[in-house]
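Example 9 (inverse folding). The structure is encoded as follows.
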């Protein structure tokens, strides 16, 4: 049987499952697209959500507004709260789902699924992703891809073996504002000149442990079955060794991913200082404070990148700043933040403004003398604006990219291999804190 003949024998779901191999830029053929099943339109995708907590809900809020996405099943172990609430939320959008506690049971019973969105705690990702891929589903799995490199490796291998799509939830990779910065400012114009340094941070204010309604307490046997020793740990899993990776993994992975993306390089060393300096080490097993320095030997020369995450003070929030000898790009996922600063000695940027890569700095009315203005601009050069803004919720473009990749219309913006590279770079920070010395990366560590 040749490829076309074999497609004729497939139903719509089988075709959807097989057509998106590695998002190879394939388009649905009109012949196959015309086939419909049970009132489904050709581009409809049947989806389950696995892990319907805080992030699961955020993803659902975007996904229900994407054309052709039909939720059929929801799996969450917290029946009295998240499972109930998110099932109700979906119902309000006319997605009637079967609810499950056990994901294996969901895979056994739901035979008409095309894809699954996984937003369980990090330590569940590898097992669940591999099982879903092997069940023939395309997977959108939240970052951190896994809390262990072994788990992350198995996920990449399963995606390769099955030919199913695996998108990792580093959503900035699909954010049009970030994509504009990469395509136009970093690649096409190299407007920053020779990038030498990066600064990034995610600073948060001190906050108490997440609580839970007393009437929604899970029994000890259920908690233990799913890897938790108490409700406190279940709610605050990211702080516990073996379950999450602490703030450097939880928050830092988003931004350290951008470092590699924009530099088109993987780090060759990292050193880090960190610890649980503020909270109780028994409850906050991972470090509440981490400061890391990476080195990258890029095609254009050495880059040193500083990254900090603290959880006691939110000053300056979160952003990444790429600094070159002709300018600085400061960007954040946080809406409305971000600018490009031209070094006074750099060639003028009129050409890039005319091409629409940047918007002119806003002229400020000033009574200051020229000398004072010159002095101020040396310290804080005029800021050009980034002309592209994300109008949608942060995660929507990444979900749209995933669903369009399933339809064969786009390539994944963050396939498993990229998620793996980021996991290698980020998980080593915790090792470096523990080792108390600089750790090197070998290029082959980033490859499967
Ligand atoms: N991309 C982002 O911006 C972003 C933001 C926040 C969280 N996340 C990621 O999303 C994931 C979930 O984080 P969260 O903040 O929603 O956590 P959460 O604790 O609020 O939600 C996790 C949910 O998974 C359920 N669960 C736990 N084990 C399960 C299992 N074995 N089977 C089925 N359900 C299970 C829990 O009952 C809970 O409802 C994490 O990987 C996190 O890193 C990503």
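The amino acid assigned to each position is listed next.
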């Amino acid at each position: 049987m040749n490829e076309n003949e074999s497609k004729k024998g497939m139903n719509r779901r089988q075709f959807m499952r097989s057509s998106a191999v590695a998002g190879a830029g394939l388009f649905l053929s009109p012949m196959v697209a015309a086939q419909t099943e049970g009132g489904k339109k050709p581009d409809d995708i049947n989806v389950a959500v696995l892990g319907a907590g805080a992030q699961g809900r955020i993803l659902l809020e975007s996904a229900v507004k994407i054309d052709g996405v039909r939720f059929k099943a929801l799996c969450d172990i917290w029946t009295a709260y998240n499972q109930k609430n998110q099932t109700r939320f979906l119902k309000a959008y006319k997605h009637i789902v079967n609810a499950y506690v056990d994901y294996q049971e969901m895979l056994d019973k739901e035979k008409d699924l095309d894809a699954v969105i996984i937003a369980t705690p990090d330590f569940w990702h590898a097992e669940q992703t591999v099982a879903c891929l092997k069940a023939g589903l395309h997977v959108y799995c939240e970052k951190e891809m896994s809390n262990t490199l072994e788990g992350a490796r198995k996920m990449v291998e399963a995606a390769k073996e099955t030919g199913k799509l695996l998108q990792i939830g580093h959503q900035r990779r699909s954010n049009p504002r970030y994509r504009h910065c990469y395509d136009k400012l970093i690649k096409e114009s190299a407007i920053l000149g020779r990038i030498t340094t990066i600064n990034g941070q995610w600073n948060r204010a001190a906050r108490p442990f997440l609580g839970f309604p007393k009437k929604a307490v899970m029994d000890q046997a259920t908690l233990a079955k799913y890897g938790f020793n108490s409700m406190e740990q279940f709610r605050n899993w990211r702080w516990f060794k073996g379950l999450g990776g602490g703030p450097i993994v939880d928050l830092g992975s988003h931004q350290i991913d951008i470092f590699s993306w924009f530099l088109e390089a993987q780090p060759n060393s990292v050193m880090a200082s960190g610890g649980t300096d503020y909270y109780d080490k028994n409850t906050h097993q991972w470090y509440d404070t981490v400061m890391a320095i990476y080195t990258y030997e890029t095609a254009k020369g050495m880059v040193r990148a500083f990254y900090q995450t603290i959880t006691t003070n939110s000053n300056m929030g979160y952003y990444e700043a790429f600094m070159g000898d002709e300018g600085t790009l400061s960007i954040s996922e946080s809406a409305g933040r971000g600018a490009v600063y031209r070094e006074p000695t750099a060639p003028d940027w009129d050409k890039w403004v005319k091409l629409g890569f940047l918007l002119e700095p806003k002229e400020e009315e000033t009574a200051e003398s020229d000398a004072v203005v010159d002095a101020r601009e040396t310290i804080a050069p005029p800021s050009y604006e980034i002309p592209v803004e994300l109008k949608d919720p942060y995660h929507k473009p990444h979900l749209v990219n995933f669903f369009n990749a399933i339809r064969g219309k786009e390539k994944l913006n963050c396939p498993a291999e990229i998620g793996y590279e980021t996991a290698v770079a980020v998980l080593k920070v915790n090792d470096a804190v523990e080792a108390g010395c600089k750790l090197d990366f070998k290029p082959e560590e980033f490859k499967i």
